[in-house]
Amino acid sequence: MNEIPTPASIGLSREDLPNSYIGRSVPRPSLPKLVQGRATYTDDVVLPRMLHAAFLRSPHAHARILAIRIEAALAVPGVVRVFTGADLAKVCDPWVAVLDHLKGMKSAPQHPLPLDRATWQGEAVVAVLADTRAAAEDGVAAIEVDWDPLPAQTDMETALDAGTVVIHPELGDNLVFTRTATKGDVDAAFAAAHKVVEATFVTGRHTGVTLEPRSIIADYNRADGMLTVHQATQAPHMMQNVFAKHLRLEESQVRVICKDVGGSFGIKVHVYPDEVAVAAMARVLGRPVKFIADRFESFASDIHARDHRIKARMAVNADGTIIGFDVDDLTGIGPYSVYPRTSAMEGNQVVNLVGGPYDFAHYRCTTRVVLQNKAPTCQYRAVGHPIATAVTEGLVEMAARELGMDALDLRRRNMIRDDAYPFTSPPGMRFEGLSHHASLDKLLEMVPVARIRADQAEQRAIGVHRGLGFAAFIELTNPSPFMYGIGGARISAQDGCTVRMDPDGSVVASSGVTEQGQGTEAILAQIVAHGVGVPVERVKIITGDTLNTPYGGGTWACRGAGIGGEAALQSALALKAQILEVAGAMLQAAPESLDIVMGHITDRASGAQRMSLHELGRIVYFRGDTLPRDLPRELVQTRHFITKEYPFAFTNGIQACWAEVDTDTGMVKLLEHWVVEDCGRVVNPLLVDEQVRGGVVQGLGGALYEHCVYDERGNLLTTTMADYLVPMSAEMPDIHVGHVETPTKESLLGAKGAGEAGTAGAPGALMNAINDALAPLGARVLEQPFTPARILAALGRI
Amino acid sequence: MKWPALGYLRASSLDELWRALGDGAQILAGGQTLLATLAFRLSEPGTLVDITRIPELRGISVTGGVLRVGALTRHAELGRDALVARHAPLLTQAVPHIAHPAIRNRGTIGGSLAYADPAAELPACAVALDATLVLAREGGERRVKATDFFTGLLTTALEPGEIIAAVEFPLAGPSQRAVILEVARRSGDYAMAGLAAVLDLGADGRVTAPRLTFFGVGDGPVLATRANAALEGRALDAAAIAAAQAALDADLDPPADLHGPPAMKRHLCRVLLGRALQSLTPATEQAA
Questions:
Q1: Where's the FAD-binding PCMH-type domain (chain B) (predicted)?
Q2: According to CATH, what is the number of the domain A379-474+646-794?
Q3: Alpha-carbon gap, residue A372 to A335, rounded angstroms
Q4: Which residues in chain B touch residue A788, judged by CB atoms under 8 angstroms apart?
Q5: Domain coordinates of chain A in residue numbers?
Q6: Which A residues in the span 356-375 are in contact with B, Cβ-Cβ below 8 Å?
Q7: pLDDT tens column, A743-752
């Protein structure tokens, strides 16, 4: 296992092993297309007879719909049809977003458009179809709805109180899910501990802002009974199932195509009621219907995330040994759990991940997931990780400060030893192999801690407050069926890849994982080129089409490289073996004595070129009569991969953040940021580094800027890019990335996920940096985003 | 969202403009605010009247003892103009604070003043520099001091049928000191609090005619009359700065916004006042 020859592993130069694309920074083949504006996003697709949808959205956080008058809308020029919730309920069955393995979970049935009640501001209530989007919006403006506003439940802290507004009375209360993980005897251990540090942390509700908004075209063709959906999604096969199930079709009657997707971050892996409404309307009309969310709709109806309040305690011995964690997590998820992955996962992840890097004996962590009249929340990049990491690492640095210890020494004392694996964490996570100590060592090679501390002291003397903060983390990647499948969701944990060689010696690979701009197709091309033995330019990749790719899960939870990549490698190696068998027959040589290098059959021992793949292809396809009659010659191979030994391939890493706090204005200036992460085999270092950097930026965004702000009545106040602040390049620091590689032994490729590591650790590292800067002033901040107002308040300046 | 259906008319002279203005007409200059409000359908004018080709509204010149800046001057032009740098250096300093390059390439000074966003830089600069706005209408024009032009939240002294033709700035004398500072969440954002400060610093080190003008903290540019009075005639030393800071509170009545409570804005204004005046203090004072 894991014996893929790379130049480094066999001590050769790149030139000696020209086909070694794994581990190499190959530019993404899709880049020219993306930067030249030649990509095909869903909105670029224009179909004959296509209509455009616009939605009337609820202006109220909670209101009964007494009457909807559509006559004036139907009279607007260009308007073709108006649909209400009742209209769509005739053709579309509602869904309930629960998973069987999340014990006791409950949620209410959700329709594409609500029948009699709107439960968050921004919920789509009425759909207008017209010849253009502008005409559809004119139609929306002409609709009259009689609303009966109801009291809104907006504060998660009161969601379970007696006498509170119960958002779905049939559920009995607002509790969606709760789970407690325990290990050891927390009460006794804490009582006996040398020191207990405790704090309440808040992570701010925010969202993933994609350059391309949610986009869909649904086209039901009555002639062949096919519903073809062009959609910006991460999981086309999941959506195929959803559309079929709820529109009463067979899965084979639904084809989902996603060509280029402009960013996803988890936002585009969920079922949105307005998008299902589009499919239902296309089904009724037999015409294509397009809906492209505008930015206002994105803020009001894309999933939000990370709306948590966490009360946490950590007990330590005098020598800095961590005794245990005791954590109470509360999260508000909006009025419905989001289909089909559910909105309980984030809280569940907090329970799974707190204390992750450390070896300790006592653990108690509870999450309570409650309903609110706000936009639904669900999985966004690094689900739960940034929350668990900020809590864990915030407590670690607090404890170090209280004990007068260096926080890195405290970490080193408690991190799971690099030779302790396999290891099972207190909440029951099984780790195959992590590298906390090696990663910390690597980080300290990169971060000039002594120089920084000297600068910090010098600057403090002149009233400039700088801080250095760290955050170690674990990350869950390569999910098995234990994530969704066992709960009853038809979301594939297995992925496949079909690789074929065409007569000209070029290779085409189709895969069930998907591309949203992060470079999935680039690494698949590298892996296939490496596996077959052809130049990477000779490989074309097909993804994002349920009719033309092997069934699979798509790209989410960091599974593209680890699962899709392994399927690609195995199918490429199978194709290579098949090619060599054919070549052996042609060249009268044992297949084992041959190799394929840069598109040529070579003699393995001497490296001499024997025949080009082009020539082999010509003979197989056009002069097959000259080959032995019983020679197998299928120059196409398919392999599937699913992880079997471990439910998840955990990765690990550690980040450091160096920041300056202006104690007069409360502004934070990011000076420098470092990340070491271990995603197993690095397929493309350039892409992994950029994934990490992008992830760090999103993590810093949530910690400093991004915030979906609601007033107490449930009105969303941040509905434009001027109010919802995304991180911009001018404020971002240089981000240095280093790697430790601990390949997973579950696959030949050995790759684990890399897409979420940056986001997982950045907020905790920044929080610790700010608090390191503020420590001499007796102030600290624990509530994200760390705004100037919060920092000034902590300093007692306002 | 998509714009409502509307008409578009391009005027190539003031005469054409006067004919085009009427019920439901909305002037389009740089469009950096208007186009977004159209997309949100916050405004549904019948016709957009594009004034960007009207020559009378262009150009920067020194005439009659004032710096005249045509209303159509784009922020980017303002930022790189040599006459502006020489005669109204505060404006040159202000331009990099205005949004982002793409917006500065299109937005105009006339548009910014007419829209009168309380957090915008140019209205505050106009007040700080004691500028005069030239308002044109069919058959005539009138001049209005910037201080009188801004009448409330997003409201101005512009009458129906009137447009801003130009802005006239007094020429900066050798003793003028000017600085603009702001605190914004991200570079290019509207300020949480900002200060355009202009004063004369005599050879004797004494301040005359201070015009500290705050933005982002009220319903328009806030000329801090009490803080200004506290500075008038004093040497620019730590005591004078403290006196101005103490007086400032009574000049301000900031609203809460998404960034924080009124107390934060008051605090930030004090900080900005201190930093701005500190930066204008003679080097000997700074060392002390």
A1: 1-174
A2: 3.30.365.10
A3: 5
A4: 183, 185, 192, 259-260, 264, 268
A5: 14-39+494-641, 42-150+213-261+267-301, 379-474+646-794
A6: none
A7: 999 999 999 9
